[in-house]
Amino acid sequence: MKSKGFTLIELVVVIVILGILAVTAAPRFMNMQVDARNSALQAMKGAIASSLEMGYGVLAMHGLEKVPQLDNKKQTVPIPKCESGVSCDFRYGYPAPDSTTMTSLVDHLGDRHGKEDWALIRTASDNQDYSVTITTSDNVEKTINGNIESLKNENCYIKYYASKAIDQPYRLEITPCQ
Fold first, then answer.
1. What count of Cα atoms within 13 Å lies in the side-chain half-sphere of residue 128?
2. Res 125: pLDDT
3. Is residue 113 within 8 Å of residue 123, measured between CB atoms?
4. Residue 168 Cα distances to 65, 92, 94, 162, angstroms
5. The pLDDT of residue 53
6. Separation CA 176–CA 158 (nearest Å)
7. What is the pTM for the complete model shown?
8. What whole-number distance in Å separates Cα of residue 51 and Cα of residue 60?
9. Residue 157: what pLDDT?
10. What is the DSSP string of the chain?
11. Contact of 100 with 120, CB cutoff 8 Å
């Protein structure tokens, strides 16, 4: 009599081997989400830097890159999205850290109300160091009255520090996701 199929021992060995592979591979697959979020942060940082440099280039073509404060309330700002009644404010050729100027220049960046994938918020420390925090919309914690924002996680964001002087350009710093 010829038997076909696997023995019980062979099946147990295969299940044990698959279990060992799953245990060793699971941490790598779990970490992929963090890697994806960090890659998205890097991509957004690149998009912000590109938008800021393009805005600076437009202002430089008009000789406005050295102006300490330029806003469209007092004079015309030659940037297309800033001409349509949107309040735009620039310091030494780079945007001031406010929601209207930054969201006018950078695609997919919205205010704290979360209408876009990325949100620009002002935390308590932002007011002291002339900066704003940029994070994913799902990382924004809103208060009851909706005026103060904070981060749900104290990581996974980009910090934009505005230019304070002609020889001090803006800075973009990433705090990676964990």
1. 3
2. 67
3. no
4. 13, 9, 11, 9
5. 94
6. 8
7. 0.79
8. 14
9. 95
10. ----S--HHHHHHHHHHHHHHHHHHHHHHHHHHHHHHHHHHHHHHHHHHHHHHHHHHHHHHTT-TT-S-EETTTS----GGGSSS---EEETTEE-SSHHHHHHHSTTEE-TT-SSSEEEE--HHHHHHTEEEEEEGGGEEE-SSSS-EEESSSSSEEEEEPP-BTTB--EEEEE---
11. no
Report the amino acid identity of residue 124: A
Give me the pLDDT at residue 146, please. 60
Q: Locate tokens 């996701």: which residue?
A: 177
Give per-10-residue mean pLDDT for the chain (178 aa).
78 94 81 89 96 93 92 83 81 90 88 78 72 90 70 91 88 94
Residue with tokens 């109300």: 113
The amino acid at residue 171 is: R
The pLDDT score that the predictor gives to residue 48 is: 96
Rounded Cα gap, residues 80 and 105, in angstroms: 9
Q: Which residue has the tokens 């999205």?
A: 81
* β-pair partners for 109: 118
